[in-house]
Amino acid sequence: MGKLFDLAKGLAGEKSLHGRFGRWIQAVSTALDAGSATPAFGIAKKGAALDVIGQGDTIPLDLTGLTRGVTYDVAHFLWVLTPGKTYLLHGEGYFDSFSDPVNGFLDVTWVDAVGTPLVGGGINSPENRFAPGAQSGSVSMVYTVPYGSVALTAARLDCVLANGTAGMVQGFFSSTVVEIPG
Predict the structure, then answer these.
(1) Helix (H, G, I), strand (E, B), or coil: what is residue 53?
(2) pTM of the predicted model, to two decimals?
(3) Theoretical Cys-Cys bridge with 100: which of 92, 93, 104, 180, CB 3.0 to 4.6 Å?
(4) 31-69 confidence digits (pLDDT tens)
C-alpha cells in the first residue's frame, strides 16, 4: 500500500483491511496516494453589518472560509476561476426592509467581472427573485469557464433587476463555488 495508508493504519491501530474503518482508509489513501484530490471549492458570506441593495449593485460578500483551489477576491466580491474548468455556482440569502413593501423585488444572478450575466444564470427564475413576501431565495448554475476572456474567468452575484431596494442582513447571504471534475 501507499504511505498514507500505512500511516493511517498505525494511527488507528487497525491491523487489517477487513474492518469498516480499514476498508475506508484503504479507499481514501489509495485515491490520495494515486494523486487524486478533492475538487476546488470555496464559500463566501456576508459578515459586515446591513447593506442596502438595489438594481446594479454587487452582493457584498465580505468573508471567506473553507477555500481550496479557488480564490475569492474580497475587495471586488469576485470568485476567480480557472479557464477550461466547470463549476457549480450557488448563491442564497435573505433580504428584508424592502423600500416598496407591496411591489418591491430584487433579481439576483451570477455575472462576470464586468457585470454581464453568465449564460445559464437563471435570470427571472422564481428561485432568484427576492420580494417582501418571500425574502429568501437562491440562484445556481453550472458554468464552464471559457478561454480567452479575462472578464469571464471571474464570477460574482449582482442584483440585475429591482423595484426599489432591500436590506441585506449580516450573516444571511452566502455563495458557494465547487469545481465539477471531468
Answers:
(1) strand
(2) 0.74
(3) 104
(4) 555 555 667 878 888 877 778 999 999 999 988 877 888
